[in-house]
Each structure stands twice: as structure tokens, then as C-alpha cells.
């Protein structure tokens, strides 16, 4: 059974790159264009992993992570933050919010695949 990954990013092109990378490994992909939109995708379907951007309109990545962690069905879903930010303070805020990994853009596809496989194994 293939695993489903939710990709949250306000950049369509980035969502496409991540989506293609993951689909090439046999994952199913659901996309959200910001935190608010992504929360509507958490509608009871099984999501095995979330890859989220940090800086987005409507709801940023950290707020989104905090909201996900309040949802009983999704609070244990691992979340990777994929962002241009590499600030240690933000990283520690992310860890406190419940992030499993922090990846800095631009990312290498094999890096993404390795992180995803580690978290959904």
C-alpha cells in the first residue's frame, strides 16, 4: 500500500518538484497552497508525512504545525519543514512545535527521499 504525503507550499513550482520527487518513489501526494488550505486536506484521510514550507500567506508553517498537533488523527504525523530559513531560533521553535526535520531549500531530491523514507519507514 502506498503512503500519502501532504506537501504544503505557496510556490506551485516547488510543490511540483517535491511532488515529482516523491511520486517517483511510489508515494501518493496531496497538495496544499498554505497552512489554512492544508488543514482542509486533513479530513480524516490517512496522511503518513507532511512536508511544509515556513513562510506562507494566510497561515505560516509553524502555526500550521501547531494546528496539526492539536488534531487527534494527525498529531503523530511526522512533519518536515522545507524552507529557505536556517535560523537556529526558528529551528528550535520548530522542534518545540513538533517538527521531525528541517530541510533548507534548495534541496537535493535524494536528501528529501532519504529523510522521507526514514520518517515513514
From TrEMBL:
Pfam families tied to this protein: Response_reg
The name this protein goes by in its record: Response regulator
Residue ranges occupied by any Response regulatory domain in the UniProt entry: 4-120
InterPro entries: Bact_response_regulator, CheY-like_superfamily, Sig_transdc_resp-reg_receiver
Record carries keyword S-adenosyl-L-methionine: no
Residues the record lists as 4-aspartylphosphate modifications: 53
Annotated signal sequence range: none
Gene3D superfamilies in alphabetical order: 3.40.50.2300
Keyword Phosphoprotein: yes
